[in-house]
Automatic annotation (TrEMBL):
<dbReference type="GO" id="GO:0005789">
    <property type="term" value="C:endoplasmic reticulum membrane"/>
</dbReference>
<dbReference type="InterPro" id="IPR008962">
    <property type="entry name" value="PapD-like_sf"/>
</dbReference>
<dbReference type="GO" id="GO:0090158">
    <property type="term" value="P:endoplasmic reticulum membrane organization"/>
</dbReference>
<dbReference type="GO" id="GO:0061817">
    <property type="term" value="P:endoplasmic reticulum-plasma membrane tethering"/>
</dbReference>
<keyword id="KW-0175">Coiled coil</keyword>
<dbReference type="Pfam" id="PF00635">
    <property type="entry name" value="Motile_Sperm"/>
</dbReference>
<dbReference type="InterPro" id="IPR016763">
    <property type="entry name" value="VAP"/>
</dbReference>
<keyword id="KW-1133">Transmembrane helix</keyword>
<feature type="transmembrane region" description="Helical">
    <location>
        <begin position="238"/>
        <end position="259"/>
    </location>
</feature>
<feature type="domain" description="MSP">
    <location>
        <begin position="5"/>
        <end position="125"/>
    </location>
</feature>
<keyword id="KW-0812">Transmembrane</keyword>
<dbReference type="InterPro" id="IPR013783">
    <property type="entry name" value="Ig-like_fold"/>
</dbReference>
<protein>
    <submittedName>
        <fullName>Vesicle-associated protein 1-2-like</fullName>
    </submittedName>
</protein>
<dbReference type="InterPro" id="IPR000535">
    <property type="entry name" value="MSP_dom"/>
</dbReference>
<dbReference type="GO" id="GO:0005886">
    <property type="term" value="C:plasma membrane"/>
</dbReference>
<feature type="coiled-coil region">
    <location>
        <begin position="183"/>
        <end position="231"/>
    </location>
</feature>
<comment type="similarity">
    <text>Belongs to the VAMP-associated protein (VAP) (TC 9.B.17) family.</text>
</comment>
């Protein structure tokens, strides 16, 4: 079995959950191959998260980090669990490929390219030294719990149960994650395309003018050739050739001498 194109560290997205506050985590992609590897990040909840960058190219034997930011939430999820998942798609691209060269069709399986996919799950944890959020009868209750002080130990964050592996294998609608930078990039690409389109129209107009001029020149040459042809024919038809006249004269002289008594 061929090794994976990249390694992902860590294998889960862990967010410190606080009401009405954003939370971010960083994932590192490690390219251990000697090839250029392109990646794309998708999620089942594109409105809840912002990913930067959501696409990119990892150079051979290099790493690339992307940051996922969970938007501020107004309610606490049931049992502090989210079924949100992320999908990391990777594929080998030609040497020298840049981020600007990446297009959505590059990660389409219909193109026949080999696409590797890795799923990441979301884990919510409570901030240290904060009330533990527990759902009671559909409502959220904040219950203060205090542990006896323990010296020389770091605070332990309460971690919610992980989503089962079976749930990870279920088919879900994965959507490309949003990146505000993508909008500016698309606008810039659209502007560049409009400029190129104008240049192409100018070039086509110039080519049409050159074509019309060439057609006119061709018609003029054909007209001149026709005139020259008619003049040559007229010259041949007027009078007899000089050699023919000389020949007739010699024949006449010979006959004259022959008939003379």
């Amino acid at each position: 079995m061929a090794p994976d194109l990249i390694e992902i560290e860590p294998r889960e997205l862990k967010f410190t959950f606080e009401l009405k506050k954003q939370s971010s985590c960083t994932i590192q992609l490690i390219n251990n191959t000697n090839s250029y590897v392109a990646f794309k990040i998708k999620t089942t909840s594109p409105k809840r998260y912002c990913v930067r960058p959501n696409t990119g190219v990892i150079l051979p034997k290099s790493t690339c980090d992307f940051t996922v930011t969970m938007q501020a939430q107004r309610v606490v999820p049931a049992d502090m669990q989210l079924r949100d998942k992320f999908l990391v798609q990777t594929t080998i691209v030609p040497y020298g490929t840049t981020d600007e060269d990446l297009v959505p069709s590059l990660f389409s399986k219909e193109s026949g390219r080999q696409i590797e996919e890795s799923k990441l799950r979301v884990v919510l944890v409570s901030p240290p030294h904060s009330p533990i959020l527990q759902p009671i009868n559909g409502a959220v209750k904040q219950e203060l719990t205090y542990a006896a002080p323990v010296f020389n130990e770091t605070p332990v964050m309460k971690e919610t149960p992980l989503v089962s592996d079976q749930e990870l294998t279920q088919d879900e609608n994965l959507h490309p994650s949003h990146d505000p930078k993508d909008v500016d990039d698309l606008k810039q690409k659209l502007s560049n395309l409009e400029v190129k389109l104008l240049e192409a129209e100018k070039t086509m107009s110039k080519l049409r003018e050159e074509k019309n001029a060439a057609v006119q020149e061709k018609e003029k040459l054909q007209h001149d050739i026709a005139l020259l042809t008619r003049k040559c024919v007229a010259r041949v038809q007027v009078g007899f050739p000089f050699l023919f006249v000389v020949f007739i004269a010699l024949v006449s002289l010979a006959l004259g001498y022959g008939l003379h008594p």
